[in-house]
Specification:
alpha/beta, seven-stranded mixed sheet, 9 strands, binds S-adenosylmethionine, Non-ribosomal Peptide Synthetase Peptidyl Carrier Protein, Chain A, two-stranded antiparallel ribbon, globular, single chain, magnesium, metal-binding, metal ion binding, methyltransferase activity
Length: about 575
């Protein structure tokens, strides 16, 4: 007999390859339950008649039966995507992988699923499954990295960032006068033949090119008003974002943009020639050659931290296990040896070292625990607050160091990011907002849709510093001096044109805020909690925000900062 069948590489039966593959299918089915397309009882009564044994299990059953002797037994692996010829562990990020896997699984499970759930759900189910698989494969064996995986919401127009970035657009409009001033200072001082301008965290949508058009028209105006004399200047733009940003969409809109910017400009005023390039990569790395950029701009990005903070409940368990193991090891040593060992200073030092390391490790891991909060809240332990603050200091210092290397002497930066109006770190504007999102998650936990462990281990990698914190880190780094710093506020609801303190009772505010937050946090939340919770989560969040805004007005605080490079 020659038999080939699916098996399991790892000994642990709960950690098999099929468990991962089928869990993503279950996640897709759960999403259909949430949307009312599949009955909960139907899902609960369904189990796939499939089992992937380990090699040892196969050997054991053959040995037990005594009917055959094993001539050859071997385990081989193949990628989930049957069209993926590279059988390595590399990243799989092509959108086709999810579809390929979904097709091959559908081909074998379709009759089974159709007879239990009905044929009508199949298309929807496997579309969702394809997306889940896609996300899973892109997560490089389940680890989410801010640098490789973080991006704004893409996909359906209703929820994507490009169509839900009005809040950020308002900030670009608000900071236009500062940008014009900074631009003028740079080109008047340096008069470069080509001015190199980089927008860090450009994202996608109208905001991306709004910045380009503002810079271009500022230079055109200067040329028109003869501010530059006979100096002729070209513009080179670099649009930077993380690799998973939809750069293609930006590139595809360039032709139309070039036409519209020319058409929208007053007749007789020539636009400076401009060239636009995309630059994927994290701005927490070097992006440009030394002293090659004249102006850096970044809007609504620097509050995102470079690291994701996971509460490590599993590691805590590991630490406890090590403690128990050490104690039991000591008990196994015979009494005379123990007495002998206790006289040995080396043994004492080793014990002291192990205990200190364990306590340190434990403290570090405990610091990640933030209860059911997902951002700094009133009940957040001081150790956790410090982690957020340390990360802010580290990220900002690194950012300043890298940009200082890349800026030409005399170059400038204009940065706008979310901050905090009050000095009290526990009472920031973001704490209120994300406190409400945590409430929405908690309510899904109460309904059994979100697991407690998942909720407790999630913390948003975002930080809103106060003006003083920003000043401190810049002063300490001694690489830039502050030209301008100010804090401005905008209402949570980006469609609220009136930036006043009156009461809000419109029924759409909750939904508007929810859409805006979903557009920036969807991939992060989907990767941690699963895509299936998103619709319900943001519906709940919209209701909670709605109630909150009916009681009091709420605002974001943003910090605008212009910096001069120190030589
Ligand atoms: C809210 S969007 C703002 C986009 C745009 N500047 C605007 O005003 O609409 C934040 C952007 O920052 C990007 N981002 C976050 N961390 C980044 C990093 N380390 N390097 C480059 N881009 C980053 C995100 O991918 C996202 O596109």
């Amino acid at each position: 007999m020659l038999l080939t069948f699916l098996g399991r590489k790892k000994e642990g039966v709960l950690d098999g390859d099929l468990s991962h593959l089928c869990a993503l299918l279950a996640e897709a089915l759960q999403a259909l339950v949430t949307e009312g397309l599949v009955e909960r009882e139907k899902l609960e009564s369904f189990n796939l008649p499939l089992y992937g044994p380990s090699i040892d299990e196969v050997k054991a059953v053959i040995a037990l039966n005594k009917l055959f002797g094993i001539d050859h037994i071997q385990l081989f692996e193949s990628n989930w995507d049957p069209y993926d010829d590279m059988e390595n562990d590399g990243m799989c990020s092509s959108p086709q992988h999810g579809v390929n896997v979904a097709k091959s699984i559908r081909a074998v499970f379709e009759p089974l699923l159709a007879s239990h759930f009905g044929e009508c759900i199949l298309d929807e189910l496997f579309q969702r499954y394809a997306r889940n698989v896609e996300r899973h494969l892109a997560e490089d064996n389940t680890k989410y990295s801010m640098e490789l995986d973080f991006h704004m919401a893409i996909g359906e127009a209703e929820a994507n960032y490009a169509n839900n970035s009005r809040l950020q657009r308002k900030a670009l409009i608000k900071t236009k006068p500062v940008l014009e001033k900074v631009m003028r200072q740079v080109y008047m001082a340096l008069l470069p033949p080509t001015m190199v301008v980089a927008d860090l965290g450009c994202s996608v949508g109208i905001n991306t090119l709004l910045f380009v058009s503002k810079v271009t028209s500022t230079v055109a105006d200067a040329q028109c008003h003869n501010e530059l004399g006979c100096h002729f200047m070209e513009l080179q733009f670099f649009l930077n974002d993380l690799p998973r940003n939809d750069f293609n969409q930006v590139f595809q809109s360039l032709q139309q943009f070039t036409k519209s910017i020319a058409a929208g400009h007053p007749k007789g005023v020539a636009l400076p020639p401009f060239y636009i390039s995309g630059l994927p990569g994290s701005y927490y790395n070097r992006l440009f050659p030394c002293q090659s950029v004249h102006l850096f701009h970044s809007s609504y990005c620097l509050h995102w931290q470079s690291q994701k903070r996971e509460a490590i409940t599993v590691s805590l368990l590991t630490v406890l296990k090590i403690c128990v193991f050490s104690i039991s090891l000591f008990h196994k040593i015979s009494m005379p040896d123990k007495i002998l060992l206790s006289y040995l200073p080396i043994w004492n030092n080793i014990q002291l070292f192990i205990v200190t390391q364990l306590i340190k490790d434990m403290n570090k891991k405990m610091a990640y625990l933030n209860g059911e909060n997902i951002y700094i809240a009133k009940s957040t332990p001081q150790s956790m607050v410090e982690l957020y603050q340390d990360q802010f200091q580290k990220d900002m210092s690194l950012f300043l160091k890298l940009r200082h290397q890349e800026l030409v002497p005399g170059g400038k930066m204009l940065l706008t990011f979310l901050g905090r109006k009050k000095d009290d770190v526990l009472d920031g504007d973001l704490s209120h907002l994300f406190g409400l999102l945590a409430q929405a998650l908690q309510s899904l936990f109460t309904e059994g849709i979100v697991e407690k462990g998942k909720l407790e281990s999630f913390n948003l990698p975002i930080y809103g510093p106060s003006i003083d914190e920003v000043k401190t880190v810049i002063t300490r780094n001694k690489l830039f001096c502050i030209d301008h710093i100010e804090l401005f506020e905008s209402n949570w609801d980006p469609y609220d044109a009136l930036e006043h303190d009156g009461m809000h009772i419109s029924p759409h505010r909750g939904m508007n805020v929810a859409k805006c937050i979903r557009a920036v946090s969807e991939p992060l939340l989907a990767s941690h909690f699963g895509e299936y919770i998103l619709d319900k989560l943001f519906q709940r969040f919209a209701q909670i925000v709605e109630r909150h805004l009916a009681k009091e007005n709420a605002k974001y605080s943003a910090i605008v900062l212009s910096l001069n490079r120190r030589d």
